[in-house]
Design a protein that fits this description.
The chain is mainly β. Helix content is 7%, strand content 47%. The strands form two sheets. Strands 1, 2, 3, 4, 5, 6 and 7 form a seven-stranded antiparallel β-sheet that branches. It has a six-stranded mixed β-sheet with strand order 11-10-9-8-13-12.
């Protein structure tokens, strides 16, 4: 099932294995990318076990609705495919697509500290909800949970290297907790 196993650090998740599809080792995958056909451009994906990544060679990819159906070398039956259920599929960051300006990978936003331009610390980004029209950042801090829309007029600056996001308190209005 694995072809070479090596420790690599900087990976991004591109899919989540939902279940086996059929009896011959194909799997149903929920793409975690805005470009579902991305799997056509890849030769390999990786599984993460602890801190190790195991390489899987893609044999075929097809698409139906919002899902991708993948086959990997060395996986020939439903029992082998079942072992992949619930696993994330990863790629090294250097294989990631180039993003447009002011667009970020979710993995880079998670964990960022969020502050207003006045310096009030709101907390850290715990997760991101994709609504279709815009993302919503779920922030957890000392005052509880805050939902912040990922709009340019609200999110003023994103520094993924420094793990910090600056937001407009004025645009958030009543969404912010009181200082008292």
């Amino acid at each position: 099932m694995t072809i070479g196993c090596k420790k690599l650090l900087d990976y991004l998740s591109v899919g989540y294995v939902l279940k086996p599809q059929g009896l011959k080792g194909e799997i149903k995958v929920e793409p975690l990318t805005d470009y579902a056909e991305r799997f056509d451009e890849l030769d390999t994906l990786y599984l993460k076990t602890g801190k190790q990544y195991s390489q899987l060679k893609i044999v075929s990819a097809r698409y139906m609705g919002d899902f991708a159906y993948l086959r990997f070398a060395g996986i020939h039956g439903i029992d082998e495919a079942e072992e992949l259920r619930g696993q994330y599929l990863w790629i090294p960051r250097n294989m990631a697509r180039i993003l447009p300006d002011d667009t970020f990978f979710i993995a880079d936003i998670i964990g960022c500290e969020v502050c207003t331009q006045e310096g009030q610390v709101l907390g850290q980004v715990e997760s991101i909800i994709s609504t279709g029209s815009n993302d919503v950042y779920v922030i957890h801090g000392s005052k509880g949970e805050i939902l912040i829309p990922g709009l340019k007029k609200v999110v003023l600056k994103v520094d993924t290297l420094g793990k910090k996001i600056i937001v407009s308190a004025q645009e958030l209005g009543g969404l912010l907790p009181n200082e008292n």
